Amino acid sequence: MTPDFPDSAALAAEAAELQLPRFAEPEALALGRILMDLADGLGVVIDIRTPDRTLFHAALPGAAPANDRWAARKSATAFFFQDSSLAVGVRNRAKGETLEKHGLDPAQYADHGGAVPIRVTGVGVVAVATVSGLPQLDDHRLVVRALQALIAGI
User: Are 47 and 56 in contact (CB under 8 A)?
Assistant: First the structure.
C-alpha cells in the first residue's frame, strides 16, 4: 500500500464517524445532489440504493457504461460485508484472500473502493452510496466527503 492508502484501522475509524440519525428518500436525494456537486466535471456514476431499491442514480458526462457494472458490483460487496468496498479490499489483500474465498462471484462483487455503507445510529446499514469512474481511493473519498457534508447538514 502507498503511504496515503488507508489501512483497516483507519477505515474502521472513518466508518464509525459516518453515522446518520436517519436516512430515507429526502436524505438520499440530498446526498445525490452533494455527490453531483462534488463530482462536477468528473466522469462518474453515482448510485445510492437500499438492498431492494435504487434511490438515486446518475451517470455524469464522461462516465463509461462499465461504471454502472462496477457500481453494482461494489455496492453488492458493501451490502454483503456491511463495510466499505475499499475496507473489504484492503483486508483481502492484507490476508492474501479474494472474494472467491468468501464464495462470491467476481462478476457480481468487487472489492475496490467506491461503495460506502450508509449507517443509521441504532439501526445499522440501510443503504449504500457508490461512485465509480475514478481510481478506487478517489471514488471512496468522494463518497466519504459527501456523507460528511450530509451529516453536517442534518
Answer: yes
Name the domain count of the chain.
1
Q: What is the pLDDT of residues 29-45, one digit of tens each?
A: 999 999 999 999 999 99
In whole angstroms, what is the distance from residue 63 CA to residue 90 CA? 25
| Cβ atoms of residues 69 and 109 within 8 Å | no
Say if residues 135 and 107 touch (Cβ distance below 8 Å).
no
pTM score, whole prediction = 0.95
What does the pLDDT look like over 40-62, one tens digit per residue?
Answer: 999 999 999 999 999 999 999 99
User: Strand 19-20 to strand 115-120: parallel, antiparallel, or no bridges (unpaired)?
Assistant: parallel
Q: What CATH number did the domain enclosing 38 receive?
A: 3.30.450.150
Question: For residue 76, what is its C-alpha cell?
Answer: 453488492
In a domain, 31, yes or no: yes
Instruction: For residue 136, give the amino acid letter.
Output: Q
The answer to whether residue 1 sits within a structural domain is no
CA angle, residues 142, 143, 145, in degrees to nearest 5:
65
Whole-number pLDDT of residue 1: 40
Which structural domain, as residue segments, surrounds residue 148? 8-153
